[in-house]
């Protein structure tokens, strides 16, 4: 478990999930970043994460404290403040981006031209956006890189339904007409998102904090331990078998984004689930995990 250092449940829960992310843990346990980085003894965010993950598997103590990461919290997110409750998903995004930037700096220093860092290899994917002009049938297509999916859950009962809604075709009309390059005019069009390249680790955030007053959507959204995305893949995608297994979730208990408590469930390599609630860690069943009102889900590819 991780000691709470003062409203750090959001940090502890995210660190537990990253620690049990298989490809990231394997990479960190081999020390592949710190071997090349001169920031091992300074404030390199990836070195700190690598050290934290390695320490979690190396030391024989029931409770530890992520003190170094907490000390350098603003290295990951400049506006985060010690002692203040922050958003777990926001921390996760900042942590991945900070580690990605650290990898990119290392590659640039080594004169590697590729922008495909280890963080992009683990968490990165591509969505394809296609727009059909309904006047001339011209098709515009582009790829956008993503590190996670954020899904609306208003009036949504299942994760599958939320994913289907995300990829539902959208008609661009009225004030939202499409400026067609071929027609040279504003036209009615249809927009369709699909997955061109699915990530090795798929992170899904359920948008529970949608009220500008700080309210929360606290409804249970049904999800499963197995997830298949074949029906949402682009027709021209080289990625044909994006099948996933759940290995971690973050839960927020409470009624507002400005308060409450975060805790996590993680699955160990043997398939046993554990509830990680700050310094308290206990075995949990699959049924218990699936009954939770989850906020963030972590899936890893089966192949």
Automatic annotation (TrEMBL):
One of its GO terms (molecular function) is cysteine-type deubiquitinase activity. It comes from the Eukaryota. It catalyses: Thiol-dependent hydrolysis of ester, thioester, amide, peptide and isopeptide bonds formed by the C-terminal Gly of ubiquitin (a 76-residue protein attached to proteins as an intracellular targeting signal). One of its GO terms (cellular component) is nucleus. Keywords: Hydrolase, Protease, Thiol protease, Ubl conjugation pathway. It is an enzyme of class 3 (hydrolase). Pfam families: UCH. Residues 1-302 form the USP domain. Its EC number is 3.4.19.12. GO terms for biological process: protein deubiquitination; proteolysis; regulation of protein stability. Belongs to the peptidase C19 family. This is ubiquitinyl hydrolase 1.
């Amino acid at each position: 478990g991780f000691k709470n250092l003062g409203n750090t449940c959001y940090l502890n829960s995210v660190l537990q999930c990253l620690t049990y992310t298989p490809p990231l843990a394997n990479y960190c346990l081999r020390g592949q970043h710190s071997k090349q980085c001169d920031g091992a003894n300074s404030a390199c965010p990836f070195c700190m994460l690598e050290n934290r993950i390695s320490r979690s598997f190396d030391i024989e103590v029931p409770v530890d404290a992520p003190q170094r990461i907490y000390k350098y919290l603003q290295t990951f997110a400049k506006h985060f403040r010690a002692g203040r409750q922050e958003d777990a998903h926001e921390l996760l995004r900042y942590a991945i981006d900070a580690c990605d930037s650290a990898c990119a700096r290392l590659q640039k220093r080594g004169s590697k031209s590729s922008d495909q860092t280890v963080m992009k290899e683990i968490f990165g994917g591509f969505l394809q956006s296609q727009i059909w002009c309904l006047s001339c049938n011209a098709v515009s297509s582009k790829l956008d890189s993503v590190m996670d999916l954020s899904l609306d859950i208003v009036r949504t009962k299942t994760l599958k339904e939320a994913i289907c809604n995300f990829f539902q075709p959208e008609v661009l009309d009225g004030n939202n007409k499409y400026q067609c390059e071929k027609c040279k005019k504003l036209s009615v069009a249809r927009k369709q998102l699909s997955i061109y390249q699915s990530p090795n680790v798929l992170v899904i955030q359920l948008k529970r904090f949608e009220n500008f007053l700080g309210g929360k959507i606290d409804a249970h959204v049904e999800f499963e331990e197995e997830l298949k995305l074949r029906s949402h893949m682009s027709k021209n995608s080289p990625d044909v078998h994006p099948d996933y297994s759940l290995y971690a979730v973050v839960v927020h208990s409470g009624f507002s984004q400005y308060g409450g408590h975060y805790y996590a469930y993680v699955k160990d390599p043997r398939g046993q689930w554990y509830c990680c609630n700050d310094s308290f860690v206990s075995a949990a069943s699959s049924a218990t995990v699936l009954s939770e009102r989850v906020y963030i889900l972590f899936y890893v590819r089966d192949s």
